[in-house]
Structures are given as structure tokens and as C-alpha cells.
Amino acid sequence: MQNHRKSNSSLRIGGLPKHFPRVHALIAGTAAFMLSLAIIIPTPEVAAKRTPLPVNLSAVTSTDEPLPTPAPTFTPAETPLLNVSVEAVKSLSLQVRNGDTLSDLFQRAKISAKEMYQLLGSGSEAKQLARLAPGEELTFQMNNDGQLQSLKLQRDRLSHIEFTRTTSDQFEHALIQREPDSHPAYRQAQIDSSLFLAGSDAGLSDSLIMEMADVFSSDIDFALDIRKDDHFSVMFEEQFLDGEKIGNGPILAVSFTNQGKTFSAVRYVDNSGDANYYTPEGKSMRKAFIRTPLDIVRISSHFNPRRLHPVFKSRRPHNGTDYAAPRGTPVYTTGDGRVIAAGYSKPNGNYVFIQHGERYVTRYLHLTKRKVKRGQRVKQHQVIGTVGSTGYATGPHLHYEFLVDGRHRNPATIVRKLPKAKSVPASEMIRFKNQTQPLLAKLENFQGPALAQLDEDNP
């Protein structure tokens, strides 16, 4: 019995006692339960690591290693688009060269004539593509099959027209017009030999010089009246696009001193949107007739009733004024009127006669080309032909005659005696003053130091 109790009390399984005291078993069970809870419920630190947090991109600083790109996710209702192809569009820009036609440019772009005719037939706006000018630019866009998708015609830096193929396989057009930035500019000069040289030295373009001469064409004969030390001041617009100068706008205000007499003019846009030049008091700078039918040229023969004819060597009256100028120089009508004759004769060559109202007729002889037809209405300063030497002429020049009530008068002096065009109406005088006085004030501010400098140069 004694041996038997001893062996039961010392029985072991796996080196551990098979039977514990009751207290020990309770402690062991509690520890096992707590351990299982620790495994199932993570600590706050572990939970924080497992829960993704939103990332504030603005607070992320750059590192040497790029952030990983998350894989795209889709909701059950979404299905990713697969195998979607976008058709490539090729673009080609071609500049119009001398002699180019639209067909030439389509061939160069390797687009079929069928596409060209489809575009030309899309509307009246497309027909202007048949009238291309050298220097203009065409930009073609076509797909891989060579089908035209769009065509842009760049007329100049400020405007272009674009034709685009629609879903109905037609072409629609859109005119895009940009407005340049305009800023006033000022130039002044004193004449030593000619207006052109003085203007060019002052930085004026040829077109601005001609515009200034046209403003004063009723008061100053730039072929006869210009003298050394005459001077001018002019304020005009300079136009800029994207910070780059692209050209000049109109003259805003101008002053010209000729033989000690000063003439001033300012630009005014009336209620109808028409722009003209007036004196500071609102009187029109235009007379019924301008002084000369050509831009600044040389008079080769004056009005002379007892002139010796250079061809026939006999005394024959010279009933007009001859202006020597290069062949092809534009000839302008000196006043509004109607063409009563336009043709050719052996003595006159190509000629144009214009009736102005009931009393006045002007004649233009020895033209290379006539630009008007009989019965046509013309406006002052409209081109009616070009200088030539047709008929009885020893060289290229324009013979100009002025008749009043059927009698020849001296063209160089008769214009001074004719009335001016209409002045600003009384109903618009307040508007005229509000628009023009700031321009004249700016011109005067510019003139102050400029005239002082002229006085220092010519004590």
C-alpha cells in the first residue's frame, strides 16, 4: 500500500505533473484566456499601422525616391474601357508662294482633289480660298487615311479663318479676329531737302508719311510748297501683339509748319463711325478737291497757255500740269464724282475724265492702265489708273487738267479758291471736343521740348 500511493503521487506526463492543485489550475486558465484576447484584439499601435490614413499631398515633401503609384480601383458598377484607339491627326503648314493655287497646296499636302472640292462647295466663305496671296499660310490637319479634318487660312497675324469637318461630313467655318494693343507714339522732324527724307530720318514709315501728306493735301502742295526748315510734329498709334510691334495705326493728331504758317489737324470718329480729320475748331481738313492727283512727285511742266510743245515744237497751250513719276505710280481722283469718259486716243493715250457736280471736270492723260469705267461713281483719293507714257508723251508722267464751267484753270491754284467739305455739325461739337481735346493736349505736351530743341539747332 505504501508503495502504491507513492507511485501515484509521482506519476508524470511529458515531464509535467498530470494533476495540479486547484488554485494552480485556475491561474493557468486565466492566463491562457488573456493570451487569446491579446492575439485576437490588436493594440492601438498595431491598429493604427493597419488602418490606411488619407494623405495630404500639399504637406508631402519631395524625397529622392518617388512615391508609389496606387493601383486603379473600380466600383462594381464600373468597367474599365479596354482597347480604345484614338486616331492620330497629322498637321502640316504651308506658305503660299508666288503663282501658287489652292490645288498646288493640296497636292503638296498630299490631300486628294476630291477633298478640296468638297471644302470649296461647303459655302460662300470657302470660295475665298481660291484667292490666295503670297505670304499667307495654310495649316492642314488630316487623319491617317489622308482625309482633311480642318484647314486654317492665316491671312495676317491678327485674323484667320478655320474650316472644320463636322460629324455630318460637312465643313463649318469660324473667323478668329485678334485685337492688338495700341499705344500713342510721337515723332517730329525738320525738313532739309524733302519730306520723305525728314520723315524717314525721324523713324516714320512711308505709309505714315503719305498719310500725313494726305491730311494736309487741301492746304499744302507737297510738290511746290515745301521749303527748307519747314517742320512737323505727329502723334500716331503703334500696334503691338504679344509684346511685339506689328505695325502702325492711324495718325491721331498732327501739326505742320509750312513757310511759317502752321496747320493742325486731329482725327475724329463721328456718330456713324466714320473717321476724318478736322482743325481743332471742327472745320474739315478736306476741300472739295485735293491739291494733286499723285503722291509727292515732281512737276515737270506747269500750266502755260503759251507753252512750246516738246513734241511738235510749236506754240500750243499747255492746259494742265504735268507730274513726272515712275511708270505704274497710282493716280487718284481729286474729288468725288462720276466717270464721263474712259478710253484711248492717239494724242491722250489712256485717259479718264471725271465730272464733279455741275461745274467741275478733271482730266487724267497718258495712263498706263485705267482702273475705272465710264458711268462709274468715284470717291476722292480713289485710284483711277497708273502713270504711263501712252499717247503723245516723251516719258512717263501724268497730265492733269481742271475745268470750271468748261474753261481750263490752273490746277495748282484753283483748289485754294474752292470751298471745303462740311465741318462738324453743331449737334456733335460737345462730343468732338471731348474726343479730340485730350489728343491735342498730348501733342502739345510732346511738342514743347521738341520745338525747343529745334530752336537750339537753328539759332
TrEMBL record:
Q: Which residues form the Opacity-associated protein A LysM-like domain?
A: 93-171
User: Where do the TM regions start and end?
Assistant: 21-41
For the biological process aspect of GO, one term held by this record is:
proteolysis
Keyword entries, A-Z: Hydrolase, Membrane, Metal-binding, Metalloprotease, Protease, Transmembrane, Transmembrane helix, Zinc
Listed SUPFAM superfamilies: Duplicated hybrid motif (SSF51261)
Cofactor (UniProt): Zn(2+)
Protein name (Swiss-Prot/TrEMBL): Peptidoglycan DD-metalloendopeptidase family protein
Identify the species of origin: Microbulbifer okhotskensis
